[in-house]
Amino acid sequence: MSNEQETKLVIITGMSGAGKTVAVQSFEDLGYYCVDNLPPALLPKFMDLMKDSANNIRKVALVMDLRGREFFDSLFEALDVLGSVEWLEEHILFLDAKNEALVTRYKETRRSHPLSIGGLPLNGITQEREILDELRGRAQRIIDTTSLKPRELREKILKIYSEKKQEIFSVHFLSFGFKYGLPIDADLVFDVRFLPNPHYVANLQPLTGLNQDVASYVFKWTDTHKFNEKVLDLLKFMLPQYKKEGKSQLVVAIGCTGGQHRSVAIAENFAKELSSNYITHVSHRDIDKRKGH
Is the distance from CB of 195 to CB of 224 less than 8 angstroms? Predict the structure, then answer.
């Protein structure tokens, strides 16, 4: 396998309660193929899958922790194998936190430590730290999450592992018709049924908002320009806040009566207006639902 096809493998491990769930979700946002709690004994077979040129798996993140402790002794043997594979770029990320912070987290979630079921969390934490000590020493990167909120840990991981110029935040504009129901995956919903409706213009009725004549009709009104200006101003304020909070995608739904004319034209325009600063996508849920279309 050539260097151009080199596969990146990140093994996420560390103390229970230190943030591995947040970490694997962050790698998913970065486009990694993620597997949670893979037994180390299965790592060689998984490597065969990764090496198969028929698939397109080039970035992989695996979570390995003491939930699979019966397989843990085989991990170091598997890591030795990884180190000798030329086509694989292997990296161990170890998440740690002070005992006090881990105890507090277990108390907050009312969960038992996997090594101290029904016992004191600190006993399990102490035992786990001893078991993982050697693995911690082999890690290429250690992140102490003691004082990190989940959002801060996520930002840290994205900053460390993002590829150059990689942008993970995107805005998806979705047009829809209210007569077919609200989209359940929308973060923001704007209603444009107050605007003049091309449906009542004979030569525009059979067309959609993707047609230039329909778009020109929608945007020839002063109210449309005012709405467009105000919503864009609102989005330009809100989008950096959503991005800062750690959201990877914002779905903005634009609705009119049937989802063929006004909402389509306006969604297309919003996507175009913001495309210079953000990755934008646009889709039209109900554009083909008109009777006889």
Answer: yes
Backbone angles phi, psi at 34, to 5 degrees: -115, 140
- For residue 177, what are the β-bridge partners? 256
Check if the beta carbon of residue 264 is closer than 8 Å to that of residue 207: no
87-126: pLDDT as tens digits = 777 788 999 999 999 888 887 776 777 777 667 778 888 8
Residue 46 near residue 37, CB atoms below 8 Å: no
- Tokens 């077919």 label which residue? 180
- pLDDT tens by residue, 233-261: 999 999 988 887 767 789 999 999 999 99
Among the listed residues 4, 13, 10, the one whose alpha carbon sits nearest the alpha carbon of residue 64 = 13
Query: Hey, which residues does 284 pair with through a beta bridge?
Result: 175
How far, in Å, CA of 121 to CA of 111, rounded?
Answer: 9
Tokens of 48: 């065969």
The amino acid present at 56, given as its one-letter code, is N
Q: Which segment of 14-18, 52-56, 127-131, 268-272 scores lowest on mean pLDDT?
A: 52-56
d(CA 238, CA 177): 25
